[in-house]
Amino acid sequence: MAKQKKGEKAAAGGLREQLRVPAGPVDLTTYDTRATPGFDGSKDDGKVALEGLGAEVSDWQERLFAEGRKGGERSVLLVLQGMDTSGKGGVIRHGAGLMDPQGLKITSFKAPTPAEKRRGFLWRIKQALPDEGMIGIFDRSHYEDVLIARVRNLVTPNVWNRRYDQINDFETELAAHGTTILKCYLHISPEEQRTRLEARLDDPTKYWKYNPGDVDERQLWPDYMDAYHAAIERCNTPEAPWYVIPSDRKWYRNWAVTTLLLETLRELNPEWPVPDFDVEKEKKRLAAT
Amino acid sequence: MAKQKKGEKAAAGGLREQLRVPAGPVDLTTYDTRATPGFDGSKDDGKVALEGLGAEVSDWQERLFAEGRKGGERSVLLVLQGMDTSGKGGVIRHGAGLMDPQGLKITSFKAPTPAEKRRGFLWRIKQALPDEGMIGIFDRSHYEDVLIARVRNLVTPNVWNRRYDQINDFETELAAHGTTILKCYLHISPEEQRTRLEARLDDPTKYWKYNPGDVDERQLWPDYMDAYHAAIERCNTPEAPWYVIPSDRKWYRNWAVTTLLLETLRELNPEWPVPDFDVEKEKKRLAAT
Predict the structure, then answer these.
(1) What does each C-alpha distance from A244 to A23, A26, A104, A169, A221 come to in angstroms?
(2) What is the arithmetic mean of pLDDT over A119-141?
(3) Could you tell me whether strands A242-246 and B104-108 are parallel, antiparallel, or unpaired per DSSP bridges?
(4) pLDDT tens-place string over residues A47-94
(5) B221 occurs within a structural domain
(6) Is residue B6 part of a domain?
(7) Which residue range is the domain that position B255 belongs to?
(8) In chain B, which residues have their Cβ closer than 8 Å to the Cβ of A203?
(9) Is A109 exposed, middle or buried (0-12, 13-18, 19+ CB in 10 A)?
């Protein structure tokens, strides 16, 4: 168990307990996007605390990976959702970046191609699932199919309405086969988004991240919030719970998601595999070479 | 350009020039597995120097990634080969681990399945190639098809003999389509391998990395060296050169491969993409929201 860093507050049940969305109706306007639940230090403290998670989270990751190589069937899937600029990429860079890239399977979902649409919205998602021992990370996910698809009327209400149950069935089955699912909504305010989009327009090294369509989507903010409320409420199951991560402070967001991942790995508690060979006999064979 | 760290020796042509295998016959016994070309510091200096590469290599990686998102077609492919325990995984963990995992596509090749064999040995390799803007890393590769396949007579001599030309054709085409290929042979001595295998048998957290088959392969060391000599000699093209990395010292190996990657990215010199929209107009649109 890693030592607690300055700023980290231990709480019964851990950070998952604090950030987990309770069952029932969801209203994101009641969540403070600048809050830092479970942490009462400064930005610098937060960065130090994040670095401090590296060794332990990497160790657990290697144990899970080892287990997967020796017949274990467990894996972890981290789903990242949020409005543009909420920091899905930042979490991967700074949080997942602490781990061994060999044990990560990262997929960034863009608009589906015609060939993908034809196969049903979950088909491409299933292609991207983590194998045993791996930590899968989705930058956007099947939730886009009840978010932009709903807001932009890309399919009829009848179609998107059925998808919530389809998602729950899919996630329940996934969990039953050994995948621990962690769904994070990175929660920013519209004001913070404006600031971040402005920053992209002010910095030539960030132009490539900007898309004029981002402003169009931004103008539909209330519609997106409605769609998020429905998605989080209707797909908030014990097998695949939602967490709301206050994300106006990037350092908190990175620390919080990494901590959720760490708590999840600790609970899975993968053991180093027992040898499937005779250790003493192998030592002798090796010595003879 | 990053400042040089203690131990790093600048050389005309860079480290690539020093580690690149010259055209002609190859004899790996003439390479010192404990050498540290281009570096004359201690192990600790080496670790500091490696960390010191992180910021610059990440910056270039992001530029390449950005270029790829805006129509650029270039990518990098790092091929890692070497005997068991030579440290292919260690290079990925410690070297590639310095970069953003979103820009990496890592593939570890095991024995091919019947379905893969049926499609020809290059089929599964092509599935795993990096897309534009990405850095692909192969932990083992199509070279296994002229290494273990040759040593273990998995195919007839006639079949493996033709593969060298097939590999050269494949790599030449790949390079012509914008992929810079970097092939690294991680060179360890048989004595160092014994030490590392012993370490795996002495440490319960490493048992999972040990396979009794490793000792069988080890007993064929001279045959593998012959196969490596042929592979490196016959597939050492200007488009896809081989580098021999002395790898008995893990810290040197990690620093050297990362430095080769850095020099490659510097030479590609990807520029931040120019905006494909009107920046001032977008600022106004954004301000109005």
Answers:
(1) 13, 11, 23, 22, 17
(2) 98
(3) unpaired
(4) 999 999 999 999 999 999 999 999 999 999 999 999 999 999 999 999
(5) yes
(6) no
(7) 18-268
(8) none
(9) middle
With beta carbons less than 8 A apart as the criterion, state whether A251 and B184 touch.
Answer: no
Contacts of A241 (CB under 8 A, 6+ apart): A20, A21, A182, A183
Instruction: Inspect the interface and report whether the beta carbons of A208 and B100 lie closer than 8 Å.
Output: no
B62 to chain A: nearest residue by CA? A205
Confidence of residue B83 (pLDDT cuts 50, 70, 90): very high
* DSSP secondary structure code for residue B5 in this structure: P
- Residue B275 falls inside a structural domain: no
Residue B150 exposure: Cα atoms within 13 Å on the Cβ side? 24
**What integer pLDDT is reported at residue A2 of this predicted model?**
55
Q: Cα distance from A99 to chain B (closest Cα, Å)?
A: 7
Residue B166: pLDDT over 80:
yes
Q: What angle separates helix A221-234 from helix A157-176, to the nearest 10 degrees?
A: 40
CATH value at residue B172: 3.40.50.300
Choose among A53, A107, A56: nearest CA to A80: A107
Specify if A237 maps to a domain.
Answer: yes
**What total number of domains does chain A contain?**
1
C-beta separation of A86 from A189 below 8 A: no
Residues of B with CB under 8 A from a CB of A: 66, 69-70, 89, 92-93, 96-97, 99-102, 104, 106, 108, 139, 194, 197-198, 201, 204-205, 207-212, 215, 218-219, 272-275, 277, 279, 282-283, 285-286, 289
Q: What token pair was written down for A278?
A: 């005779």
Which residues does chain B have within 8 Å of residue A219's beta carbon, measured at their own beta carbons? 289
The C-alpha atoms of residue A94 and residue B43 are separated, in whole angstroms, by 27
Cα B18 to Cα A12, B145, B244: the distances in Å are 57, 28, 9
CB pairs under 8 A between A and B: 106
**Binary contact (A282, B66; C-beta < 8 A):** no
3-state secondary structure chain A: CCCCCCCECCCCCHHHHHHECCCCCCCHHHCCCCCCCCECCCHHHHHHHHHHHHHHHHHHHHHHHHHHHCCCCCEEEEEEEECCCCCHHHHHHHCHHHCCHHHEEEEECCCCCHHHHHCCCCHHHHHCCCCCCCEEEEECCHHHHHCHHHHCCCCCHHHHHHHHHHHHHHHHHHHHCCEEEEEEEEECCHHHHHHHHHHHHHCCCCHHHCCCHHHHHHCCHHHHHHHHHHHHHHCCCCCCCEEEEECCCHHHHHHHHHHHHHHHHHHHCCCCCCCCCCHHHHHHHHHCC
CB-nearest to A283 from B66, B201, B208 is: B201
pLDDT at A147 over 70: yes
Both tokens assigned to B120: 């020809």
